[in-house]
Design brief:
Length: about 500
């Protein structure tokens, strides 16, 4: 019986299984913020196979590489236009001693990666390897300094080593093969200092921050942008305290928000999940908007001129480790659900860029919400990679506000979200891009976009969708999820209409 009804509903589009949304696009709105490219930042941590195998295989590897960096991953990251890359952690950063990772590789000491599976770290990927990678990718480095188990002197010398033209540290750098200093703008002063980064309370951390930040100097025209450790999720007390005590001494304050689908931190499988779990994941991820708003309101009360940036330097989905992989390596697959999560988040982030200046999804290769997965010599691009690629048109573009009256979806967790996700921007060539996602699994969504003045001359579009929400790209198989041209957008005067299939993401280019 229910199958018959379902079939009928599917056959009558526009009736039960079609949602509709009418959107006004205010492309004539003046004084809109730029969407910083850094919203599309990535995070590389010494965790599992992110650095080793994922990025670095060493120059002697059989896996094709350029100076030790695997060629396939380099090329994929180049295509993504990664604006900023955070390193070396995460929790790893607060046990990392940078001097162990310089000089001839065969002389570098080993350490145990206590946070992530007790794996032996041979330090073959260190400061030179990371900063050279950033240069090869045209990416800004974001160095996460060790405050938890390091010293003020150690961090001060690291900054000097990387950025000074002359002096003892510059001489050491030159002796290690690099005469010219690198440009390093972003410096994180501790990571999760309330937890794995030192177990501090906010009052104490604010003082510690000031001390570390004071001695991290600007050398020879290199201007640091110092980022204090911020809160996790809704820890508003942390934000208040750090802003109150140290707000005048920092350029950025971080925030971490992970999407864990289940109640009580029940992560569930990355690939084997129900429709309920899907909606729980999406409502949880959309909850980032309220978290951003609340932290921004606190920051506004201490910093009304918005001099301090909010930096969401860890975000993404977090599931159970894939069966058969080391627990502490946090390796997970990536499905169409993760693509939906990425699209919804990016559309939200665009709205807050007058305070939110950088976001770093965790982690770029082989860990949580990754762009790329590798298996020995094999590499694949995840559905999330394609979202970042489709959305990169928003990098450095001018935000274009939209207005609409969304419906809502409530998941079994009790949380709600808008039943439609959208964002628009105008690039430097005056081309308008609109990114949209339809979160429904069981209904398409008819979208009508009405422009203030624009009468589009043409539109082209790309779509990401899959046969099932659990679909993922697997090694040795043709990709199940990859973008395709979308021909369903129709222009009529100042209006554009299209119908988004269930669980799909579309990016329009409107001329
Ligand atoms: O991304 C994994 C870990 O999550 C990071 O190392 C840490 O900062 C956070 O707790």
């Amino acid at each position: 019986m229910s199958r018959v009804i379902l079939t009928l509903m599917t056959l009558i589009p526009g009736l039960l299984l079609q949602a509709q949304v009418k959107v006004s696009v205010h492309e004539t709105a003046a004084d809109q913020p730029r969407i910083p490219a850094e919203i599309y930042g990535q995070f590389s941590e010494h965790l599992g196979r992110c650095i080793y195998e994922g990025i670095w295989v060493g120059p002697d590897s059989d896996i094709p590489n350029i100076d030790g960096y695997r060629t396939d991953v380099l090329n994929a990251l180049r295509d993504l236009s990664v604006p900023v890359l955070r390193w070396p952690g995460g929790c790893f950063a607060d046990e990392y001693h940078w001097m162990d990772g310089i000089g001839p590789r065969e002389n570098r000491p080993q350490m145990v990666n206590n946070n992530w599976g007790g794996t032996v770290e041979d330090n073959s990927f260190g400061t030179h390897e990371f900063l050279n990678l950033c240069e090869m990718l045209g990416t800004q480095p974001y160095i996460s300094g060790n405050v938890g188990s390091g010293t003020v002197e150690e961090l001060a010398k690291w900054v000097e080593y990387m950025t000074a033209e002359e002096g003892t540290m510059a001489d050491l750098r030159a002796a290690n093969g690099r005469k010219e200093p690198w440009k390093v703008k972003y410096l994180g002063v501790g990571n999760e200092s309330w937890g794995c980064g030192g177990d501090m309370d906010a009052e104490y951390y604010a003082d510690v921050y000031k001390r570390y930040a004071l001695y991290a100097r600007n050398y020879d025209g290199n201007k640091l942008f110092k980022i204090a450790c911020g809160a996790s999720e809704d820890d508003y007390k942390w934000t208040k305290t750090v802003m109150k005590k140290a707000g005048g001494r920092l350029n950025g304050l971080s925030l971490h928000y992970y999407t864990v689908p289940g109640w009580d931190c029940d992560k569930g499988s990355a690939t084997d999940f129900t429709a309920d779990e899907y909606y729980n994941t999406l409502t949880r991820t959309a909850g980032v908007e309220e978290i951003l708003r609340n932290h921004i309101a606190i920051m506004d009360s201490y910093d009304p001129d918005r001099k301090v940036a909010l930096i969401l330097d860890e975000w993404g989905t977090w599931y159970e480790v894939e069966p058969g992989f080391i627990e502490g390596h946090l390796y997970q697959q990536n499905t169409m659900r993760d693509a939906m999560v990425a699209a919804i988040n990016l559309n939200i982030f665009h709205k807050y860029t007058n305070r939110l200046k950088m976001c770093n999804i965790a982690q770029v290769v082989n860990v949580l919400h990754s762009m790329i997965l590798t298996d020995g010599p094999r590499m694949l691009l995840t559905p999330t990679y394609y979202i970042f690629k489709m959305f990169k048109v928003h990098q450095d573009a001018t935000y274009v506000p939209v207005s609409y009256s969304p419906g809502s979806i409530t998941s079994t967790s009790g949380a709600s979200m808008e039943n439609f996700s959208i964002s628009a921007s105008r690039d430097k060539n005056d081309v308008l891009h609109v990114s949209m996602a339809n979160p429904y699994l069981d209904r398409e969504q008819k979208v009508t976009l009405s422009f203030d003045e624009l009468k589009p001359k043409g539109v082209s579009a790309q779509i990401l969708k899959a046969d099932g929400i659990n679909a993922y790209n697997d090694f040795g198989k043709a990709p199940s999820v990859s973008p395709a041209a979308f021909y369903g957008a129709k222009v009529s005067g100042k209006t554009l209409t299209l119908t988004l299939p269930p669980a799909s993401v579309v990016v329009l280019e409107v001329k």
